[in-house]
Amino acid sequence: MTMKLLWRSSTVVGVLLWLTIASLAQSAAPLAKDDPRRFASAIETFQKEDQTGTPPKGQILFVGSSIFRLWKNLKEQMTPLPVLNRAFGGSRTADQLFYLEQVVLRYEPKVIVYYCGSNDINADIKPDQIAANFRTFTERVHAKLPRTHILYVSINRAPQKMERWDWVDDANQQIKTDCEKDKRLGFIDVNPALFDRDGKPRLELYLPDKLHFQEPAYVAFTAIIKPVLSQVWAKVK
């Protein structure tokens, strides 16, 4: 009897040990390129920032990918508008949906300024899906915050994407059309600021990767976005 108990005990221990090792191996496995959990550390950073200084609700929320994340002087350039930046680099439109509660809804913003879709195109996600994901984003936001205004900032026709400018234009046009159907939505095209009079990209605005921006580009974005945002804010504050 004692031998049987010892055998059963060792078997149970062995199974538990195997399950533990398997669980650790699974958790240590690299995440897929399209797995939203790859941004867990960025979301945790936002949560820690909120714990040290809780942002007031009802502000203007900037969300999206690295184009907004790298906007270092956003608060100063948008003064006196009350803005909060919760963009996380590398994100796609599906990631914005996945983290909607943590990055958007918890702040109950009165206005959302959204830039995302550029990374989708780099990942071969087609314009129809980009537009559909943004449509879902607006629907989910308005289900909880029906009065919130959402401004979509156009995907940039960056030199890095020159071979996919037709995709960029298609996604932008679909989203612009959707925005025209709802007074709570708006479309802001920043692409005119990125080209010279001859229709060539202003390369001096870009970092060496020809995708992200130098500070003068954000000055140009401010000149386009801030007047629109000021008008919307005056209506909702």
Please give the structural blueprint:
Elements: H1 2-28, H2 40-52, E1 60-64, H3 66-69, H4 74-78, E2 83-85, H5 93-98, H6 100-103, E3 111-115, H7 118-122, H8 127-144, E4 149-153, H9 165-179, E5 185-188, H10 215-236
Parallel strand pairs: 1-2, 1-3, 3-4, 4-5
Helix pairs in contact: 8-9
Keywords for this structure?
disordered N terminus, globular, 237 residues, Rossmann fold, 5-stranded parallel β-sheet, alpha/beta, 9% strand, single chain, 5 strands
- What is the residue-averaged pLDDT? 89
| CATH architecture label | 3-Layer(aba) Sandwich
Main pleated-sheet profile: 5 strands, parallel
Secondary-structure content class: alpha/beta
CATH superfamily: SGNH hydrolase
N-C termini distance: 77 Å
Radius of gyration (CA) equals: 22 Å
Helix content class = 40-55%
Shape: globular
- Helices, by number, come to 10
The H-and-E topology, N to C, reads as: HHEHHEHHEHHEHEH
Low-confidence stretches: 3-7, 9-17
Strand order of the largest sheet: 2-1-3-4-5
Indicate how many domains the architecture comprises: 1
> Regarding CATH, which class?
Alpha Beta
Overall strand count:
5
Could you describe the 3D structure shown?
By secondary structure, this protein is of the alpha/beta class. It has one domain (55-236): Rossmann fold. It has helices at residues 2-28, 40-52, 66-69, 74-78, 93-98, 100-103, 118-122, 127-144, 165-179, 215-236, and strands spanning 60-64, 83-85, 111-115, 149-153, 185-188. A 5-stranded parallel beta sheet has the order 2-1-3-4-5. Helix 9 links the parallel strand 4 (149-153) and strand 5. The longest helix has 27 residues, at 2-28.
